[in-house]
Design brief:
heterodimer; A: 96 residues; Histone, subunit A; two-stranded antiparallel sheet; 2 strands; flat; B: 487 residues; alpha/beta; 16 helices
Chain lengths: 96, 487
Amino acid sequence: MPVDIDIAHVAHLARLDLSADELEGYKNQLGLILEHAARVQTLESDATMENAHPLALENRYREDVRRDSLDRDEVLAQAPETRDGYFVVPPALESE
Amino acid sequence: MTPTTIADAGRRLRSGEVTSVELLDSALAVAARTEAQLHAFLTIDRDQARETADRADADLAAGKDRGPLHGIPIALKDNMTTRGLETTAASQILSGYVPPYNATVVDRLAEGGAVLVGKTNLDEFAMGSSTENSAYGTSYNPWDITRVPGGSSGGSAAAVAAGSALGALGSDTGGSIRQPASLCGVVGMKPTYGTVSRYGLIAFASSLDQIGPLTRTIEDSALVLSTVWGHDPLDATSYPGELPDIMSGFGRGVDGMKIGVVKELSGEGYEPQVESAVSAMVENLAASGAEIVEVSLPSFDIALSAYYLIAPAEASANLARFDGIRYGHRAAGDTTESLMSRTRAEGFGPEVVRRILLGTYALSAGYYDAFYGQAQRVRAAIQEDFARAYGQVDALVSPTSPTVAFAAGARTDDPLAMYLSDICTIPSNLSGHPAISVPIGLDDQGLPIGFQVMASALAEDVMFQVAEEVERLAGFDKTPSLAEVAS
């Protein structure tokens, strides 16, 4: 049985502004994919995945060496809108 | 005649028979004749390439030899950043993006004297198995231009098969180097996770992504790998220890080795001609002195399910950075949030949206344990299965892909059918182990069949040793008719 999903909620979490038709289409596809993916629940094992790295690396610290950062103008040149060395965005908070 | 392998080109460059500029001109001439049909490249930078080739020739003349890729035309999948050269990951959301920095592999290719021919097409953000998810149009298979080249590194595979580059880099998250290599009749290799730096590789699923070579031969694969791999402090998951001597197994054959045939990677869904070609190769390996055993790895049956939870979950986090503020496409919006949500809906294609939604769901409150947490347990079980197998055998073998190249459009409406393309390749991503696809012949439609050799972590030497024997036994020296017509 396909998995039932609150697709509008998921799309909001993912910050995707999708139309009602698009949401319906994705909901159906995801239901089928998750039905297949739910086969992971058939695993009879209590193994745990604490470290996804196959070589079980230990945490390492790099040498504290000074290194040039990227050129600010070159980086800002890729932004859709900038002003005085800053990225420009519309209001982040709505005013009353 | 122009060299068709890196090793041969290298010898002839050093003997003065050919120049780097001639190798580049030859690659560009093939591209000029084939690109209208193949669309392997998104960007070709002739001027920069010419300049690099000129310098390679001058350096060699002055006695400065930078190594096996010196003067060799190489193509690069367009999800690796190139300073000053547009990098899109085949997404609208990065249309026009010119990175301010090079990926580590790009710097290493440059230090090694390689000549970058151009940036190759892929499925958007490397999500797909056919290149049909590219926002800039599908690539096609040089063996049959009505079929896909596989994916997601389909442009790199098509370019190497056609001869518009002598080698290429791809990235492999669930099979994205090996499956297109199989479908295009070239060698494609995914090294042990952590051995090639991911710095500057536009992230899809960080615990699975790994860069590797696509080439015509096993020797070339090792030559490219030796140039790009090694520890990089800019990648926190980079392996800092000693790497295996990958050339040590060359020419030694498989006499006395133990090779396991994976029981779960056969049967329903596998094309009979693929299975019979793989079985015949296994018999040949036995005749070469290898002991063949059947190995059962039961967790492989649910590897695909685990992958399609883990990879989208990581993708949903990685792709959060594409928000229309610092780079790339921006949609209009009254608030920052509406700007972001519209930018993302406009900029991402359907497969990327599908995977972001899938990953967001799998990680969301109430579903995490049943899906993502359980998928991680499957991943652990797969690593345990592999560990048990490598306690008994030196290497494992299987088909690379259950089918040969499929027709363009055949699977675009059925995401699950597309996902099944990667059923043989995904386990080695989940385990982080090295694996390689070697072309072993053509089916009766003239389409290439690939043979996969898998080995334990950091056992690239063993993997290459077996793969080289497979290459020798197959004697596969055919090139696609498109290249024949073109040359």
